[in-house]
Structure formats: C-alpha cells, structure tokens
Amino acid sequence: MAPGTPLAQPAPMPLEWRISESLVDYPTALAEMEARAAAIHAGTAPEQVWLLEHPPLYTAGTSARAEDLLLPEALPVFKSGRGGQLTYHGPGQRIGYVMLDLKARGGDLRRYVHDLEAWIIGTLARLGVKGERRDGRIGIWVSHDGREDKIAALGVRVRHGVTFHGIAINRDPELAHFAGIVPCGIRESAAQPFGVTSLAKLGKAVSRGELDAALQSSFHAVFG
After folding, report:
1. Cβ pair 157, 84 in contact under 8 A
2. H-type helices in the chain, by residue range?
3. Rounded distance between C-alpha atoms, residue 141 and residue 149, angstroms
4. What pLDDT shows up at residue 3?
5. Catalytic one among 99, 184, 186, 211?
6. 147 Cβ partners below 8 Å, 6+ apart?
7. 52 near 90, Cβ under 8 Å?
8. β-strand pairing of 86-89 with 137-144
9. For position 39, what pLDDT does the model report?
C-alpha cells in the first residue's frame, strides 16, 4: 500500500429484523434492547428492529405523573426509561423497538422522531388508514366520526448515540385497559374529544403478519 493511502473502512452490517410471535415480558425485552444497543455501539452487532407484543401492562416514561395512573392495581407498572408519560401495552398492539446507530445516521434526534412518525403514517397508509401528526400531541392520530383518536404511540431513548424503545400501533388490543391511565398525559373532555382507537375499531381487519409486512416496507421507505 502506497504511503498516505487511506485505509478502507469496513462495510456496515445490514440491519436485522427480529419478529417475535409469542408475548415477551417487559423486563426481558428491556434487558435485551439495552444489550443490543450496547453491542451496536461497540460495533459487534448490526442495527435491529424488533417487532413484538407484551402481556398487559403499563409503562411509565421519564415524564410520567403519578396522578395519571388512575387504576394503580389494575395491571403491572414498569418504569421504562424512555421519553414520554404513561402508556398501555398488551396483546393486539404491535410494538417496534428500534435500535439504530443514530450517530452514524447524522445524529439528529428531532429528525429521527419525525422519521418514526413518518414510518407509522406510511404503515397505516398501506393499510388504508390516514394517520396524522397533531401539534402539541404526541403520537399519530386519526379523524373519524367527528372526533380524533390516537392509534399509535412513540417514545425513544438514546444512549451512546444508539436508539432504543420505539413505536406501538394498536391493531386490535383491549382498549378498555387504556381507561386505567391518562394515555400520554392527554385527558379527554367535552372540549377535547380525544381517545384511543385501533385498526379493528376503525373496521380494518388486519392480521399481525399483514401489519408486520407493512411495517417493514414502510420502514425501508423512510430509513433506507
């Protein structure tokens, strides 16, 4: 090699998709996410998107308020370390945990959150649903029957330049469990008729496999 010739950089490892068919306990998922994020930072594992579902539970983000937990004995509550407030996870809600090397992708956290929203919106569009952002309200919303309801949530954390946590889309969860919390701190009232909905409640019979396929195709359209 001639003096001054730059060393070739190794090609990045391709992103890996992990798809779990059975329910995954939240502490197990959190530990595996953190381990994978550390491995990505160390350069020993590729980026990963993990699609899964949890048993019924609530998670509290770093901005969660005690008064927003309306039924503290209803379901287990876990501190998550992600941004955001309280939310529900359970069967029928598809979660996408996203572990990306954000530093290698430009390091723009605001752009990353915007891209997560675009991922959800693109996924819903592939399933015949119009999802929209709303100023001052976290998540993705749908307008129907004279009201607006939340159909997807997101919360992120970044450690050493690597993302984890991610998004959740309501395919056909037990929506009654959302009554145990004030979801993401947004209270419904006569002046603000906001609630939570799902693909099933909107009349969209979507299988888990169909949702996973839409998630994968939309992800690649947004993130490359």
Report:
1. no
2. 26-42, 109-126, 208-223
3. 6
4. 55
5. 184
6. 193, 194, 195
7. no
8. unpaired
9. 97
Q: What is the predicted pLDDT for the residue at 199?
A: 98
pLDDT (tens digit, 9 = 90+) per residue, 61-114?
A: 777 788 888 888 889 888 887 877 788 999 999 999 999 999 999 999 999 999
Q: Which tokens in the block code for residue 52?
A: 């899964």
**Quick one: DSSP state of residue 35?**
H
Query: What pTM was estimated for this model as a whole?
Result: 0.88
**Ranges under pLDDT 70 in the chain:** 1-12, 183-194
CA dihedral of 158, 159, 161, 164, whole degrees rounded to 10: -50
Annotated active-site residue 40? The verdict is: no
Domains of the chain with bracketed CATH = 16-223 (3.30.930.10)
Report the alpha-carbon distance of residue 81 to residue 163 in Å, rounded.
Answer: 12
